[in-house]
Amino acid sequence: MKCQCKILNSWKKRSRKGDRVDGRSSHKLYRTWASMLNRCKSNAPTRDRKYSGRGIGVCERWVEDFYNFVEDMSPRPKGKTLDRKNNEEGYCYHNCRWASPLQQGKNRRGYVSKGLPRGVYKNTNGAKYAVRFSVLGKHINVGYFNTIREASMASLNFRNNTLRTAGK
């Protein structure tokens, strides 16, 4: 089900002075809220490609008032951070949750890997293929390779040696 919240990709800059006056900047969720807004409104090329350039915004209710975000998302469980359930949709109550690093690692957009072995991705710079894995919420870069055969062997070796021994 697609969220029906009105998503905003741009809005007026909020007054920092106002944040200090009403005390919200000292609230436990303030940095999460401010970071979410910043990710979606930044014009930096990397942010634009990952968020606003893909139409990822924040629902009007949360942009208008920090305390609406607090009402919808409190309390924040220990060790968890804000996550979008569907990475193709914006930040709103129906699409957000508190997730562990492991959950977030499983819920991320991948590199182009259609038709390639597990852990092998087409690389956009330099070498043709990259081998990457996510283990217990940590990203491991195995290496870069010029041929699919080299990358496949590296992937297989990593899975056979590293992942098997980690599970013992």
What does this structure look like?
The chain is an alpha+beta fold and 168 residues long. It has seven helices and seven strands. The chain has helices at 16-22, 30-41, 45-50, 60-64, 66-73, 101-106, 148-166; strands at 7-8, 58-59, 81-84, 96-99, 120-122, 129-135, 138-145. The radius of gyration is 20 Å and the shape is elongated. The protein starts with 6 loop residues before the first strand and ends with a helix. Residues 10-18 have low confidence and may be disordered.
Topology:
Blueprint: E1 7-8, H1 16-22, H2 30-41, H3 45-50, E2 58-59, H4 60-64, H5 66-73, E3 81-84, E4 96-99, H6 101-106, E5 120-122, E6 129-135, E7 138-145, H7 148-166
Antiparallel strand pairs: 1-2, 3-4, 5-6, 6-7
Shape: elongated
Sheet-strand content, in percent, reads 15-25%
Radius of gyration: 20 Å
Q: If you average the pLDDT, what whole number results?
A: 78
Instruction: Kindly state the percentage of residues in helix.
Output: 25-40%
Q: How are the strands of the biggest sheet laid out side by side?
A: 5-6-7
Topology pattern, helix = H, strand = E: EHHHEHHEEHEEEH
Q: Number of helix segments?
A: 7
Distance between the termini: 40 Å
Number of strands: 7
Q: What kind of sheet is the major sheet?
A: 3 strands, antiparallel
Low-confidence stretches: 10-18
Structure classification: alpha+beta
Short précis:
This protein is of the alpha+beta class. The protein is built from seven helices and seven strands.
What labels would you give this structure?
168 residues; alpha+beta; two-stranded antiparallel ribbon
